[in-house]
Amino acid sequence: MKKGIALVVLTILFAWQMVSSYAIQRFPKPEFESGYITPETLLPTPRAEILEVMDVAVLLLALSVVTWAVLKRRSRNLVFWISIFSLAYFGFYREGCVCSIGSIQNVTLAIFAGSYVIPWTVLVFFLSPLVYTLLFGRTFCAGVCPFGAFQDLVSWRPQKIGTRLNAVLGVIPYIYLGLAVLYAATATDFIICRYDPFIGIFRFDALFSMFIFGGILLLCGVFIARPYCRFLCPYGVLLNWISRFSKYHMTITPSICVECRLCEDSCPYESIEKPVTVKNPESRKMVVRKFILIMLLIPFFMLLGGWTGSQIHESLAKVNGKVRMADELLHPEKIQAEPESIEMTAFKASGKSVKELYNEASRILRQFYIGGWILGGFIGLTIGGLLAGRLITRYRTDFEPNRGTCYSCSRCVDYCPIKS
User: Fold this and answer.
1) How far apart are CA 390 and CA 409, in angstroms?
2) How far apart are CA 34 and CA 198, in angstroms?
3) Which residues, 6+ apart, have CB-to-CB distance to 81 below 8 Å?
4) Are 150 and 87 in contact (CB under 8 A)?
């Protein structure tokens, strides 16, 4: 019933946004007899300071309320309606911007490019969910992130995909995060924003391919709960790490688990860890063997990943406009049949010499070579760590949410017969 009401509300918002988008473009530009030419708008008008303050206030209020709903009220219904509000405000009204997920790139660019000054609102949107996660778990994911709320709304028949496939697909966000940081650090591109799957739906002015991408993710979300959050979101990697150290985290039962098993299949994200008894404790010899294997496994994957990243650094660097232009000038035969790029036209008009372009491209290639080693080592560390985690057996007596992958959505608490 509540999903039906929410869908009606969001359908109205969707229609209003579409009409608004059409209304902006439906009147043609005026034609002046004097020869006046309407100037092109290159940059959007800055958002008013009071509205930026309102965005931050709404973010902090939503984080606080959803955290209270998860930890104190233990109410799935309240979390659901807060997420609908977040989808309406941060999604359709604010059109997905400012975005905590995309803020990773702004922070990275501010660290590596001294000339870039990060907007204070972006910094707050980046840090606030991390602070709340360190204290209370991933309550940002539960009811504040509009991307998660959108996917939650369509999750009608979620099916489990198994721990192995979960682990394999779970590597993709780490790769995405590494690439996003690499491209932002080299001032090449903001790929998280460029390939944002839901912006096309929120704004109605994105590329048609991105609109289709978002639609496919939502369609998949009917059967695989939160596919973007679980298998793509780069910000989720940071939240995953920090949530493992959260001081207060959602629990399935408010007191002692009686192992009634009612919550066992309640989580569509497969984040509930089952009890593991100590009937067959591992021998000391087996524990030492596993430890040695882990110590060898992780460095091996890091070196292998780093070497692989260094070998493909030129391909990664070709996303950069200057590197691409230098390659075009060095190999003009490759682009004879293609029209001249906008970057090339701008370069020719700038008056810079080809030698200056080559020097700049060489510097960027060096950055990508170093970045390729770091990116590959990071991915290798991730893979090695995941494999090492499968070798370690953690004994527990209760059904517990995995602190890293749990979205604190409070679905499981409704299944627990213990209410206080």
Assistant:
1) 26
2) 43
3) 2, 6
4) yes
Q: What is the mean pLDDT of residues 185-196?
A: 92
Of the candidates 80, 124, 91, the residue with the CA atom closest to the CA atom of residue 106: 124
**Alpha carbons 364 and 321: distance in angstroms, whole number:** 10
Tell me the two tokens of residue 241: 């790490």
Contact 410, 250 (CB under 8 A): yes
pTM value is: 0.85
Answer yes or no: is pLDDT of 6 > 70. Answer: no
Residue 294: CB partners within 8 Å, gap ≥ 6?
A: 384, 388, 391, 392
Tens digit of each residue's pLDDT (9 = 90 or more) over 282-319: 666 777 777 788 888 889 999 999 999 999 999 999 99
| Element (DSSP H or E) covering residue 307 | helix 284-311
Q: 35 pLDDT exceeds 70?
A: no
| Nearest by Cα to 379 from 290, 291, 281, 312 | 312
Distance (Å, rounded) from C-alpha 92 to C-alpha 81?
16
Tokens representing residue 149 in the block: 């709320």
Distance, in Å, from the CA atom of 152 to the CA atom of 36, rounded to the nearest integer, reads: 51
Pair 17, 91: CB distance under 8 Å = no
Q: How far apart are CA 311 and CA 322, in angstroms?
A: 20
Tokens of 353: 């010499």
Tokens of 154: 């369509």
Dig out the tokens for 257 from the structure.
Answer: 């688990």
Q: State which amino acid sits at residue 142.
A: A
| Alpha-carbon distance values, 5 to 2, 11, 226, 405, 408 (Å) | 5, 10, 20, 29, 23
- For residue 238, which of 386, 157, 133 has the smallest C-alpha distance? 133
CA distance 102 to 281: 45
Q: Give the pLDDT mean for 108-113.
A: 92
Q: Which sign does the torsion angle of CA 59, 65, 66, 71 carry?
A: positive
How confident is the model at residue 418, as a pLDDT? 84
What is the rounded distance in angstroms from the CA atom of residue 247 to the CA atom of residue 207? 42
Beta carbons within 8 Å of 407's beta carbon, 6+ residues apart: 138, 141, 142, 148, 226, 229, 269, 271
Most confident of 117-121, 271-275, 324-328: 117-121
Average pLDDT, the chain: 84
